[in-house]
Amino acid sequence: METLVQLGKNAAAAKYELQKLTTDAKNRSLFAVADALVRESGRILAENEKDIAAGVKKGMHPGLIDRLRLTKERINGMAKGLRQVAELVDPIGEVMESFKRPNGLIIEKRRVPMGVIGIIYESRPNVTADAFGLCFKSGNAVILKGGSDALYSNRAITDVIRDALRAEGITEDAVQLIASTDRAVTQEFMRLKEYVDLLIPRGGAGLIKSVVENSTIPVIETGTGNCHVYVDEFADCDMAVSIIINAKTQRIGVCNACESLLIHEAVKDKLLPELYDALNKYQVEIRGDEKVAQVIECKPATEEDYGREYLDYIISMKTVASVEEAIAHINKYNTKHSETIITENRENAEKFLNEVDAACVYVNASTRFTDGFEFGFGAEIGISTQKLHARGPMGLKELTSYKYAIKGDGQIRL
Amino acid sequence: METLVQLGKNAAAAKYELQKLTTDAKNRSLFAVADALVRESGRILAENEKDIAAGVKKGMHPGLIDRLRLTKERINGMAKGLRQVAELVDPIGEVMESFKRPNGLIIEKRRVPMGVIGIIYESRPNVTADAFGLCFKSGNAVILKGGSDALYSNRAITDVIRDALRAEGITEDAVQLIASTDRAVTQEFMRLKEYVDLLIPRGGAGLIKSVVENSTIPVIETGTGNCHVYVDEFADCDMAVSIIINAKTQRIGVCNACESLLIHEAVKDKLLPELYDALNKYQVEIRGDEKVAQVIECKPATEEDYGREYLDYIISMKTVASVEEAIAHINKYNTKHSETIITENRENAEKFLNEVDAACVYVNASTRFTDGFEFGFGAEIGISTQKLHARGPMGLKELTSYKYAIKGDGQIRL
Q: Rounded to an integer, what distance in angstroms lies between the CA atom of residue B102 and that of residue A376?
């Protein structure tokens, strides 16, 4: 097996080739890779079957088995995703700013690839193709470390991509897979700072925490979402119920789902009975504070509940006396992901937008819209919950950096 | 002494106040702080004297003593810097982008403060005022950890700033100093992720490496510069000499000084004798490869020399056979800071601009222009050599993040 350092060197060499590729060459390759994935789907499915069999044998949770499983349809979905990325505007080469200094220097701020991106993810084989596509279109080499349970699948997908690239005359080291199930290798990968410019963990809170704690490579934190809906005293209660049901139940296992509800005391008697019936239809468990419990049946909410990302049919509820109290509660417990206020009052809406500290702050809409596709980016590598570099949904532009190109005619500093 | 966690909590509370300040309030406070520094300069100088005495007693290098020393003039310089920051455009509140989605959602990308910024720096007391000014104007709370040798000076400056802020009705926790000389406290500070959004180390390579290795807070790497001048075969040799002398000798101890020279073989016989004489005037030691040694007197350059940031009157020199070889050498040895090509050939110039991996890439100009003031940013917190978030000179904008503010009228995701 090649060592990690060798993978790093390969990627670092590939990045210089990739940054020079024309948009046409990149798009042609993305289409070729998409076709290859469909053409070679038999081979990929056969390898995937090995992962599934191993997973079943070790008693993996059915939900995880489902996440791991590939089908012809899912492979077609991966190919479709790559073709969509080919259709997106190429971010590379854009002159972001240009200005002339009094001494005659002309300074251009040019958008350039990040270089080498590392992605650490759990056992979702589709991420292998998705991550390659986004990194490749934005001119980056990528080193992938997928979940151990998907190793056969990831290796098959990566091999197909590399073969297709080679046939197009493109360096196959545009994508490399760390084909190891050794945790120590993952730890070592996080310290491959000499070769890797950016590391993105995609997965649960545990994975992300481990990467943040151990990486020496700059990291973008993605994904954990303890998202709130706040129903203001000036809310349209029917709209509130509709948005809460959507944000809580439309898809429970995602980071932009609602986990906690704040209700202004003035509307609790009107809102809660109607909301209770609506949540009941989805068998959502309610954990409320005392004032909520005075109106509807619920379990008591603990301090710990307010900080939980349930990813389940459970919601915590708390009453507040003002928009200020709601904002303070959110800023204390949230994960800086997505927050929404339901109100017809413009002043409270602006206050909430300005003062809540989160990547995406909404007025009268579901938190579920925090998504690269819903934002119109055409793609998404993840949702950043940190403030450095990128915040919220990350598309192609968020996988780029810039450089200053400066032209002179002999200027020296005085 | 207050614990670090308490400082973190104070800063986190202050950030919500600071993000709400109007531009006028911020500017008024900056002027008030500038006046206070001048008014209280006696008190600051008395405290600085304690640091100087301790430094002299322990035999500190005269260069470091000079860096540590404050004078009336230097304090006036700090005050002037704050007044200049007050004159700069406030980056906060800018709507960077705004778009409407087909479902009617209006998405605004708004520039917001980073929140809490941590700065770790060496024994230069002026950084205390500079860093406060830039963080404050960009709406951030700042926690400072200055060099232990400057503790009395830093405490005096911070006290004056805090007093002046309080008198203006602004939270004094806009700036806090970690008043400890214990290295373990600095290590703990680097892991104060719950309260600090961004950590910027300012100083030598050792400090920066330590922060990158140990911080769990997102870091922006600044400062180390192994900068090259490449004299192409199509160079104007007089211009080359002028730029090399400027880049090497105008100020030797800075990150944008030239440390290494690459010379196309075709011009070495013409360039080197003239350059030798010019460098000799500054007593610059030359370490060259064999082909350089055939033309001028020099010490032999080792492999290690090519990777060195001398910060001294020393320069390494290497001949190359092509612009491609020059680019490959630079990409192998540089620190991604500033690189320049001297050429009259447009094709080679564009090749160099595109393919050299560095924050600032120049044609026919000195590397010494990599500087926030020279770029017209009006200020500088440091020069980033990483690709995440900010690259090259960092001004006020680079101390900000953004959030998405999204307005709907009841939209739910289907």
A: 9
Do the beta carbons of residue A276 and residue A297 sit within 8 Å? yes
Residue A245 has a pLDDT of 98
The answer to whether residues B278 and B142 belong to one domain is no
Together in a domain, A162 and A244: no
The terminus-to-terminus CA distance of chain A in angstroms comes to 55
Q: Average pLDDT for residues A310-336, to the nearest whole number?
A: 97
Determine the pLDDT at residue B371: 94
**Residue listed under structure tokens 């509370």:** B13
Q: Is A376 on the interface with B (CB under 8 A)?
A: yes
Q: Which of A246, A358, A413 has the CB atom closest to B403's CB atom?
A: A358
CA atoms within 13 A on the CB side of A35: 10
Q: Number of folded domains in chain B? A: 2
Q: Find the closest chain A residue to B19 by CA distance.
A: A355
Residue B73 near chain A (CB below 8 Å): no
For residue range A222-266, what is the model confidence (pLDDT) as tens digits? 878 999 999 999 999 999 999 999 999 999 988 999 999 999 999
What average pLDDT does range A318-344 have in this prediction?
A: 97
Identify whether the C-beta of residue B202 lies closer than 8 Å to the C-beta of residue B382. Answer: yes
Instruction: Copy the structure tokens of residue A206.
Output: 């545990």
Q: Does A410 touch chain B (CB under 8 A)?
A: yes
Average pLDDT score over residue span B9-31:
97
In this structure, are B166 and B308 located in the same domain?
no
- What is the rounded distance in angstroms from the CA atom of residue B262 to the CA atom of residue B259? 10
- Say if A198 is an interface residue toward chain B (CB within 8 Å): yes
The DSSP secondary-structure symbol of A301 reads P
Buried b (16+ CB within 10 A) or exposed e, A9-33: ebbbebbbebbebeeeebbbbbbbb
CATH code of residue A348: 3.40.309.10
Residue B120 domain boundaries: 4-221+389-407
Contact between B388 and A354 using a beta-carbon 8 Å cutoff? no
Q: Return all residues near B222 (Cβ < 8 A) that are at least 6 apart.
A: B200, B201, B202, B208, B255, B382, B383, B384, B385, B394
What's chain B's Rg over C-alpha atoms? 24
Name the strand (E) or helix (H) holding B27.
helix B23-39
ipTM of the complex: 0.94
Query: In this structure, is residue A107 part of a structural domain?
Result: yes
Residue A182 has pLDDT above 70, yes or no: yes
Q: How far is B117 from chain A (nearest CA, A)?
A: 11
Instruction: pLDDT band for B1, please (50, 70, 90 cuts).
Output: very low
A273 confidence band (pLDDT: 50, 70, 90): very high
Query: Going by DSSP bridges, is the β-strand pair A198-202/A258-264 parallel, antiparallel, or unpaired?
Result: unpaired
